Automatic annotation (TrEMBL):
<protein>
    <submittedName>
        <fullName>UDP-glucosyltransferase family protein</fullName>
    </submittedName>
</protein>
<dbReference type="InterPro" id="IPR002213">
    <property type="entry name" value="UDP_glucos_trans"/>
</dbReference>
<comment type="similarity">
    <text>Belongs to the UDP-glycosyltransferase family.</text>
</comment>
<keyword id="KW-0328">Glycosyltransferase</keyword>
<dbReference type="Pfam" id="PF00201">
    <property type="entry name" value="UDPGT"/>
</dbReference>
<keyword id="KW-0808">Transferase</keyword>
<dbReference type="GO" id="GO:0035251">
    <property type="term" value="F:UDP-glucosyltransferase activity"/>
</dbReference>
Amino acid sequence: MDEEKALHIVMFPWLAFGHMIPYLEVAKLIAQKGHQVSYVSTPRNIQRLPQLPPNVAPLIKFVSLPMPKVDNLPENAEATTDVSWDVFQYLKDAFDKLEQPLTNFLESSDADWILHDFAPFWLGPVATKIGIKCVFFNITTPPNLAFLGPISVLTGKEKDPRTKLEDYTAPPPWIPFNTTVAYKYFEIKKNAEVFSKKDSGVSEMHRVSSCVQNCDTILIRGCTEFEPEWFELLQNLLQKPVLPAGQLPSTGFNFVDENDTWQGIKKWLDNQPHGSVVYVAFGSEATPSQEEVNEIALGLEKSNLPFFWVLRAQHGRKDKAVLQLPEGFEDRTKGRGVVCTDWAPQMKILGHMAIGVFFSHAGWTSVVEAVQNEKPLVLMTFLVDQGINAKVLEEKKMAYTVPRDEQDGSFTSDSVARTIRLVMLEEEGRIYRENIKEVKDLFVNIERQDRYIDNLLDHLKSRLER
């Protein structure tokens, strides 16, 4: 890099791999430019992150803060993947107890900036006191953040006009352009149930609003060429600089023991016809109910297509709700389908020529990986930002969602089978197969991603000089 002073940037993601991995991607991109990064998390999370490429490893330092002990949080649970949804509140309680250890580290560091997630509502005043500037790095997409409201609504200065759940099934009044992006009733109902509990006495909205209020700059996953109207809207709503981080396509890296796991999977995929396999995976957090698992399984069976299903049967060893496959399902689909209940290397699977469609939860990292590998998407949403993501993809004809009852979210095995076959095989699904290829340049263009990081770093340097 130039002779000018290198920045020291601290990264502090929420305790979920859907957050930690995008943060690590940005850390690598920053380090490639010659800047120093301190990546802060807890011991087990750091151990489970993918290996760093040799060219950036010297510039990225992992800072391991011991996970605070909290009642009702299982031993060794340090990430959302380790616990069921009903335990999330205790994970956030433990996260908030990282305030003092993080403060101690920041005080002893020479950091210029800290890029932080939505959860540490307490971080802004701490960083200001030490003399470190904050970037709120939101790993959800611009429509998700815009849907929360303008800064006046986020901070409670103005009342949110949405007073009942039904109000969230239409675009809010502050969105000035035509869009179909909104929640379905069953999605917002599920979100309300999960997030109605105030973790550590702090609501989800207060966490986000505090981060927006106390930061200098907002960095958000996405690119202005893909969704220009949403970026412009966010700038107006939040009254802060809003910068794109790019889509952050996954780079070539290995998790520990990935190669051994991959060899067995690859052997099975190698024996399947080109573009014939349905890959099914709903991420590390989304868990279908037992009834949903039954319908998904029977739908895969009725599709008469080969499938590879990564099924999270339980969240951590303490999770009592262990999901079961329908009786006789594995015998009836033997040789045609595989159900994997362990971790599997998603990027390698998606990159295999046997995969014809990706049946996903609409988590944005999975969406980006589908686009990277030109795999058309069938969607089924479960929680948090997935409903908004799905609507964005539907609006752009990039994915097709399994039809469900709008009120309770129920669906049938027949609808699963029909949707998969439509997207993979039928003429009606051709547009989804073609569009996923057409947007690839917007998602994985290296020069564009590089430009976004250059713009971010130039912005951070200029703000320090003020």
